[in-house]
Design goal:
Helix content is 41%, strand content 17%. The chain contains 15 helices and 13 strands. The protein has an eight-stranded mixed β-sheet with strand order 8-9-7-10-6-11-12-13, sandwiched between helices.
């Protein structure tokens, strides 16, 4: 749920904002004020209700600039969205008050009725983006074109190689809260109720974060909150969690479900890059192309979407034919190595880097960090690795 305040003096405008807000199940107007609070009163209201967005009547009335300055300086993690009867130029923002400067209010999005629910939501998202705490952490989301394409194993091993090889601080986030494949692979079932991270009444702090995450193979792992919550309830909460994570980690790796629900949409729009993992089968490629169209329709820039082809063989279609189905270039290819994933599933999902698939994933992880793997990728197949393990086991048994 996204908690919202409404502040203004025009009742008809405030009623209009309430009506539009009511069209969204996950936006809740907790407080409506007909005066602009400042100082101690503002602090009490924000600390008591913890709103993420304040919708306020934008104009040149008394106290508006002081209110805006107080929110921006004292509560920078609260987003501001203005609303007005007519378009207001930044330069006309309360010039009659001493020290007023149009630049202080120029960056605030302003809604002018009539506007659609989509325009309302777009301005809310813009305000959330502006108030996000600055961080250098990138977000890479991995999504399968269909179940079994290898996106989960790719996300898991990329997190592992970035953390172990390059000593990067990495968070692996599980967003597939129905299947929870990463929790099953890593055999991590924390007793911490992940829904506490989604509770807007408590800000994400170090104490809660430390209890929520687990450590696996030198990276942090945030399990899914569980299937008890509806996807619609996750939209705003995942944005809050990722905003916090980006200030703590060099890279946030997210394993998305194979369906673009509200959670996946929120994360994909926040991500630095979205990797769609597809096999060379025609059905998988066509579904990957459909995923690309869906992501673009929801506002993910085309340049952020990349295709990873998993399981390419000599008998597969040519690169030109595959890219013709996808209608875009392939960003990276993994070789066909069916034995490595089977072995990896028995080893928490970690693929041996000496295999063809493991080496390719390692090179891919280095490439995401802007580096080139300094050694050639070994061409040992997963089958050869299996034979080597069996042979070693037989030798040990004979010795005993």
């Amino acid at each position: 749920m996204l908690p919202v305040f409404i502040v203004g003096t025009s009742q008809h405008l405030m009623n209009y904002i309430r009506q539009v807000s009511a069209e969204f199940e996950d936006i809740c107007v907790y407080k409506s004020l007909d005066t602009y609070p400042t100082g101690h009163q503002l602090d009490q209201l924000i600390c008591g209700y913890n709103p993420e967005i304040i919708l306020f009547e934008f104009g040149s009335g008394p106290g508006i600039l002081e209110f805006t300055r107080a929110v921006q300086s004292r509560h920078p993690l609260v987003g501001l969205v203005g609303f007005a009867n007519k378009a207001v130029e930044p330069a006309s923002a309360p010039k009659d008050e001493p020290g007023a400067a149009s630049g202080e209010m120029a960056s605030i999005p302003v809604l002018v009725p009539p506007f659609t629910a989509e325009e309302f939501l777009r301005n809310i998202l813009q305000a959330l983006d502006r108030k996000r705490a600055p961080g250098n952490g990138e977000v890479a989301a991995f999504m399968p074109s269909k179940g079994g394409s290898g996106a989960t194993l790719t996300a898991l091993n990329v997190a592992r190689f970035l953390s172990t090889d390059l000593n990067r601080r990495v968070l692996l986030m599980e967003a597939d809260y129905r299947s929870r494949p990463l929790s099953l692979l890593l055999n991590i079932f924390s007793g911490f109720d992940g829904r506490k991270l989604l509770d807007h009444w408590r800000p994400v702090d170090d104490e809660i974060w430390g209890r929520a995450i687990s450590t696996a193979e030198n990276f942090d792992f945030l399990p899914a909150a569980g299937s008890a919550l509806k996807a619609e309830a996750f939209r705003w909460h995942y944005r809050r969690i990722m905003a916090h994570a980006r200030t703590r980690y060099h890279m946030v790796i997210v394993d998305l479900p194979d369906a673009l629900d509200e959670t996946a949409q929120a994360i994909a729009c926040e991500a630095t890059s979205v990797y769609i993992v597809s096999t060379p089968s025609r059905v998988s490629l066509q579904l990957a192309a459909a995923r690309v169209r869906e992501l673009e329709h929801m506002g993910v820039p085309e340049g952020k979407i990349r295709i990873v082809l998993n399981g390419r063989t000599e008998t597969s279609s040519s690169t030109q034919q595959i890219e013709g189905i996808l209608r875009r270039k392939i960003s990276f290819e993994f070789p066909c190595d069916p034995w490595s994933p089977r072995i990896a599933v028995q080893q928490q999902g970690f693929i041996d880097p000496s295999t063809a698939l493991g080496g390719a994933m390692q090179a891919f992880a280095w490439g995401m960090a802007g580096l080139v793997l300094p050694r050639p990728i070994q061409k040992n197949s997963g089958f050869k690795a299996l034979i080597r393990r069996l042979r070693n086991s037989a030798v040990r048994a004979t010795t005993v």
